[in-house]
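Same chain as my last thread, 626 residues:
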Amino acid sequence: MKSNNIKRSIRILILIPLTFWMVSCTDEWLEPNPLSIFTPENAFIDSRGMYGALTACERNIRYEFYGDGAPMITELLFSEVCVEGTTDKPGPAMNLNIQITPSSQLNNVDYNRIGWFWLEYYNGIKYSNVVISRIDNTKWTSETERNAVLGSAYFHRAYRYYRLTQQFGDVPFIGKEITEPKLDLATTKREVILEKIKKDMEYASTWCLDNVDRGRVTKGACQHLLSKICLALGDFDGAIAAANSVIDGGVYSLMKTNFGSVPKEEGDYLAKLGIVRDDVVSRLHWWANKAIAANKEVLFMVLSKEDLIESRLDLQIMRQAVPFWGVSNANFLRTPDGKGPGTSDLAAQDIKLVETFGRGIGRARGTNYSTRKIWDDPNDLRHKRYNWMNMEDLVYNHPNLKTNPYYNKPLQLKDATGKVLTTDTIRNWFGWPHYKLYNPDPRRIQPQGGSYDWYVYRLAETYLQRAEAYWWKGDISNAMADVNTIRTRAGCAPYTDVSKFDIGTILDERARELFWEEPRKTELSRIAFLFAKTGKSYKGTSYTTADFGTKNFYFDRIMEKTDWYNKGVKANNGQQYTMSAYHVLWPIPQASIQSNTQGIINQNFGYSGYENNVPPLTVIPIEDDI
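reply #2:
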């Protein structure tokens, strides 16, 4: 039944885009066509049509996590957990001071995906507004059904506006369906938008249901998002109350014991070593266990299925976030006696590493902070050997080395004299969370990560959100208790010293638990706004809203935790890694500003065009407040 519902929604989705705003058309296109009776008026007459529009919203979110150069990577690169690792071309986002401008390439897998968030989030808002604006033009079986669909549309709109207001700050608010080109958009103050979507999510949290198909909006997801929005507004009591509703509601629970099927890779490398990865963490992230009914931790997820050919999307996460370990270049990974190439990611090898680990290209290159420094407990299941892979866990497998004494021996970074055995430690040498990244890829002999489900919101993050709200209130004991709930599930010893517990402790736990799930840049920027708003200090430093673009927690955190930006580090492509405090907010794409010919969309501080700004709206016009 669920599969049929998904297929039906996809068929509707194919028709949906024909009705949306901001489409260029000719007079001939507007002439009636007697062979076609598809119009908004007859598409959105019942719940099926409305669910089709919501399917467009769901599909839109999927694209954030899937595919080559997935937009999620850009969120990670603008944080302390990853840097751009594709060092073989000049375009990728490394020298941010030079490369990130309003008129730069902002939506390309070989550069960055800042522009994707701007474009596609407004597309998602567009789809949501179709439902919101037409909610009472539709036949409903009950008020409950109507309100649940409206709540779902509010969720999808709020999901985008929450992200946009942390990524870009003040942005235009569009609160209704637009049926013709709109060229007079105005920037609305960030806090005003957050207050609006808070109100919407209070409604959604009341009416949305938990007993829905995976991939649909749940009450738990609405409460989780409401908690995020309350945090962003500095309403810490509201954030705690919303999180309590999820945690104590009796529907969701942390998975603390084994469930579902045992992780078993299609490749045979670990099996030949006698390695069985069977613990609650590896099962939680095993592709076959994510969407099953027994998994009570998932609040909201996106779906992709290998057997739904017309709609499947490949994660490609084994390509994006795994090192470029298998390149057959003699200078990249050499044996301690100087022979190379040392490894091969071709499938036809006696030691088939590629089937287990995939053909990585090192695009989302983990920093020392995220791959080494944050792992403070040797019993952490998330960093347990073979759940977590280090380069030394791989072996020299190139067929040309079969008579070499190092064949089938662990990789080494340096020889006995201390000489580094690779010419590119950025791209080729870092650890990665294998338990999260492995996804079967039956259509490729060099796996990249196939078409499987992915978490968007999990209960584990709800605990960490509540911990943060407690911390802002000065309730360190409760904050530490929530972090410890996540730590002990992973096999770690709990923290006990409240004097050493701060916002960094929570961020460290988020980095351990939520890689490729949390939008890291979004959350760091949100916290930076809060430090500026509250005046609370971090390690003796206080911040204000007046100089937010030149001094903020976001930038200081990244400078504190990484050795990349502004340290003189250069990649093999000649690019130097740089970043500035104003990168706390991304640039508004220049094309969007220029095309808005009858209004003004403000630019962010630090970027060309900021000098043309006008005061943002402090009230949402009543005609848009729906």
